[in-house]
Amino acid sequence: MRWTNLAESEAVAEAAFALPYGKGGGGGFMAGHLITKLVSRPRLARRWPELSVAVLDDDGSCVARGVTIPYASTVEGRDPYPEGGWEQAVLWASEDALDGRAPDTLCALEIAVHPDHQRRGLSGRALQALRQNAEDVGFGRLITPVRPPQKADDPWTPMAEYASRTRDDGLPSDPWLRVHVRAGGRIRAIAPCSATIAAGLDRWRTWTGLPLDADGPVAIPGGLAPLFVSVSLGVGSYVEPNVWIEHLG
Ligand SMILES: CC(C)(COP(=O)(O)OP(=O)(O)OC[C@H]1O[C@@H](n2cnc3c(N)ncnc32)[C@H](O)[C@@H]1OP(=O)(O)O)[C@@H](O)C(=O)NCCC(=O)NCCS
Closest ligand 1 atom to the C-alpha of 22? Predict the structure, then answer.
């Protein structure tokens, strides 16, 4: 098994981005996360192939992928750990790409392990690859707004409380946060509004399979936080918290 970044070849980039995301992406409702369109797979492969990595099995097939994007952290008004988390990082990276501003920070947006190869410790390998690649391509700072999929079992607990839970050995109780901390990451802040999805209730009903016929917050499948429903306005809004982790910096 080895890792490489996607600048190695078009075939590697294609295989890496063909790898299915699997469960953990928040159910169908992530289809309504509009800002993801800015960092579509073809765009990332074309624009920043050297900033994403693939973990390749001995037969050359891609078993895991890690994605980072670059932005400049030194621009006035840019917090080191913005409350807008994932969305803020995508917006800054897009602004800087359009404006031609030189980046100094990498933000990891995603690690995905092929569903057939999960539970084999590959997520840690993908993360180590991202850390090493960041250094190899000349970045001294790597941060990530982490989405712990298992938080969906506990949607009513504030993320700060959830992320602070530890086991007897001091590592986070949540398995995905644990992978990051074990790799050398440090939990720095909560990003309370990392992913925001607003849509009409009919679409929310399709995504969740729930009747959504009462006002107020409701837990939804795959949601790390509740969905806020307004029946009279016919809309629902979901505000997802993530956890800022610093890997290099
Ligand atoms: C989350 C994900 C990356 C984990 O990858 P993985 O290679 O299967 O995980 P690993 O085998 O490295 O296991 C890491 C830890 O999580 C635990 N774990 C993995 N899958 C788990 C599950 N479904 N339920 C509970 N624990 C799980 C492992 O036991 C391990 O814990 P440990 O510290 O006790 O050893 C993978 O499930 C995935 O790609 N999911 C879809 C994409 C996603 O949600 N990515 C994360 C947000 S970007």
Answer: 41
- pLDDT tens-digit readout, 51-94: 999 999 999 999 999 999 999 999 999 999 999 999 999 999 99
Delimit the domains of the chain by residue range.
Answer: 2-192+243-248
- Spell out which residues line ligand 1, taking CB within 6 angstroms: 21-22, 24-25, 110-113, 118-124, 147, 149, 175-176, 178-179
Ligand 1 mean position, distance from CA 38 (Å) = 26
DSSP single-letter state for residue 210 = -
Q: Say if CB 90 and CB 69 are below 8 A apart.
A: yes
The CATH architecture that domain 2-192+243-248 belongs to is 3-Layer(aba) Sandwich (3.40)
Q: Return d(Cα 124, Cα 116) in angstroms, integer.
A: 16
Is residue 226 a contact partner of residue 217, using CB atoms and an 8 Å limit?
A: yes
| Cα 151 to Cα 10: distance, rounded to the nearest angstrom | 35
Give the tens place of pLDDT for each residue, 92-117: 999 999 999 999 999 999 999 999 99
pTM beyond 0.90, yes or no: yes
> What's CA 214's distance to the chain center, in Å?
31
